[in-house]
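Each record in this resource describes a single protein on a pair of labelled lines. With that in mind, the following record should read easily:

===
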Amino acid sequence: MSGHSKWSQIKRQKGAADVKRGVIFTKVTKEIMLAAREGGGDPDANFRLRLALDRARAVNMPRDNIQRAIDRATGGGDAAALESVVYEGYAPGGVSVMIEAATDNRNRTVSEIRAALARGGGKLGESGSVQWLFEQKGVIEIDAKGKDADNIELAAIDAGAEDVVAEDGLITVYTTPSSFERVKKALETAGVKVASAELSMRPTTTVRVEGDQARKVINLVETLEDLDDVQRVHANFDVPDEVLEHA
């Protein structure tokens, strides 16, 4: 989408600030626990856990913290109550949002999400109300500054990427979920440094919002992302670059 690279860069900068506050460690810990509980504590046999560990290392989470999260998840106890839940809703301007949460108390989580949506001019939707507007994709982001974007694009396509988008110093590679790990490994083997890699929900269509409405959408997404139980927020907005520059 237009402005995607700026939005990704802004989110990474915000993520760096979250690391300083320790906020991101809580979210990554939950991600590790869910992955280990559902697929086992061996990363060699658990792709989702490998992704979670990559994210943990990217934010410099201490090794002891990582192992403790795996041990908690595979040893039962309090980790047994943690579960993944996806909520769907609407932001201002008809923008659709999907909210991934990790919670041990659904009532608390849905109450916090509903309140945040209402305050931001949105509303919670029914299950399935907006999911059809998104499709799961592997998303690999590469900082292209000082690199040959054409070579990176060719390497990604040769490895099986579905789509490659280059804009403003950022290359985003999209894959099917099944080919995601293969493409990621091929790029790394080719010496390409991956800035981020995850399975995400890519909108099939976008909604253009501008001015105050665009700022409201961005503020709402950020408010949702700041909730303790929320892991990721996916939205199908398309906003002007000048709005993102002041986000």
Summary: The longest helix spans residues 4-21. Residues 1-5 have pLDDT under 50 and may be disordered.
